[in-house]
Write a structure and sequence with these properties.
By secondary structure, this protein is mainly alpha-helical. The chain has 2 helices and no strands. The N and C termini lie far apart (93 Å). The relative contact order is 0.05.
Length: 80
């Protein structure tokens, strides 16, 4: 496929490997850039999940403290 295109374009056969190498390098560069973008996106998503988990952990801790406060008030009311 590349050979036919090279012949149609009138490119010297000796340069065909240079052209193939250049095309492969361009494709590899694009794929690496896409991989880096995906890695950044995944890291951001992981950070969002970590922040959300931390939020719910704080909510649960606050709920437990409130429940303990209610328990203390009930015990004090029962003692009196």
């Amino acid at each position: 496929m590349i050979s036919n295109w090279v012949k149609e374009m009138g490119i010297d056969a000796g340069c065909e490997m240079c052209l193939v190498t250049e095309l492969a390098n361009d494709r590899l560069t694009r794929e690496v850039a896409e991989g880096e973008d995906l890695a950044v996106e995944l890291a951001q998503e992981r950070a969002r999940y970590r922040d959300e988990a931390r939020h719910w952990q704080n909510v649960a801790a606050l709920a437990l403290v409130a429940l303990a406060g209610v328990f203390v008030l009930v015990v004090i009311g029962f003692i009196r």
